[in-house]
Amino acid sequence: MSREAFEGNSSTLGKLGSLFSNLQKLQRGRTEKTPALPPSSSLASAGPRSHDPGHLSGQFFFEYLVVVGLKRKAEAGSYEPQITYQFPKRDSLAKFQKEEEEKSLKAIALFCFPEGVNWAPLTEYPSETFSFVLTEVDGSRRNGYCRRLLPSGRGARPPEAYCIISRLACFGLFSKIFDEVEKRRQKSMAMIYPFMQSLREAPVPAPGNTVKITSFIPESGTEIISLTRPVDSRLEHVDFRALFRCLGDEEVLEVFAATVLERRIIFIADELSTLSQVLHAVAALLYPFAWQHTFISIVPTVLIDVVMAPTPYLLGITSRMRDSITDTSDVSGRQVTIATSCCLCCAGELNKVVSEAFLSFFVKTVGHFTGHVRRRGGSQTAIFHKEKFCKAAEPKANRPFVTLFSKTQMFDIFIQHVERNPHQEGFFHKKIAAYQKAEKTKGGWARGRVV
């Protein structure tokens, strides 16, 4: 990524730099059981347009499970992704519903094999798990979880993909579900149905809770599978380890700066799992704000022209598609490769430290917005005074950044929600209140010492 792309915002990058003094302490103490959380520093959906976990109440764990195979075409070495299995099968749909479902299923097949139609039969293929997002006409988003593997059989053959579509954003949980699906697939496709039926009938657990699925496997007997959602629902679709394996500290800061200012950003990697994990991690750095523009964690070959769009985007491109990108004059580009060193700390520890640090940045730079939201008379809505908000940013060196950020779509959407629901105070508001209280206490203590 080029620093020149952020000319005029170097002071912002400088302020962000102190973040990593805390992260580096974590790296040095990775063997410790409980690394300390970073103190507030001068520094800073999940996915994009994050969802409220409460909306899942009463809904199914998932909408579809499909198996996507590669069907050989007339051209040599050319294959076409095709759905070979679908659960549940919905036959009683109206015509327009059936047409919409067919469109969705075609898109799902496309995202399961985004590299294109040219494949060579294989005798070995390590399974890989990745995710993507399907955006509906109304702006709502569904998550696609995909595991590709080599089907059972002899001789060279193309891989197949198992894909689960769900409103629930929780990568780790669905990875465990895939482990169970894969275990049953090795015995028989018929073994998958009763397990997925039990899962579909199970209630979606609240964050921090567990649901138990009872399943029978011949020769193994009855098994009880426990599926637990993380306590912090903000981070259940995110694993920051991939981001910090692929990019250095300074590069992560540059990516964050580009994302906050809504630039056009392309990531390139060899592995699909790397692309999906890194892009979802980058989007999660924006919390409590959410990326509002084009977000495609893995761009299929047939959609490669999206890189020419003039509007902001976050895109993931496989290395084999890199030559298809002809104009990168206005794009921040970097080839993403996994470093040889391993991240020894667990995902939960790193996720907590990273999210707290970046959240601290937003608390300190724009948290004063709460003082510039005014109720409208007896109305339940409010109005935000942007100009006063920008002028009130402290220290003064922050004001150019705050002014730029106030013009982004992510900030605008966030403020619109605040204006419509001024009485709602979530996690971000609590962090702001705690910070402001600490600052007042610190200021009072300092004045007392002077007196």
Describe this structure as you would to a colleague.
By secondary structure, the chain is an alpha/beta fold. It folds into 2 domains: 250 residues, no CATH class; 136 residues, Beta-Lactamase (2-Layer Sandwich). The chain has 13 helices and 13 strands. A 5-stranded antiparallel beta sheet has the order 2-1-5-4-3, with helices on both faces. A 4-stranded parallel beta sheet has the order 9-10-8-11, with helices on one face. A two-stranded antiparallel sheet has the order 6-7.
Pick out its properties.
451 residues; alpha/beta; 2 domains; 13 strands; five-stranded antiparallel sheet; Beta-Lactamase; disordered N terminus; four-stranded parallel sheet; 36% helix
Short description:
The protein is α/β, with parallel strands linked by helices and 451 residues long. It has helices spanning 10-16, 19-28, 95-112, 171-185, 192-201, 240-246, 249-260, 272-284, 347-366, 386-391, 399-405, 409-420, 427-450; strands at 64-72, 79-87, 128-135, 141-149, 160-166, 210-217, 221-228, 264-269, 294-296, 313-318, 332-335, 373-375, 382-384.
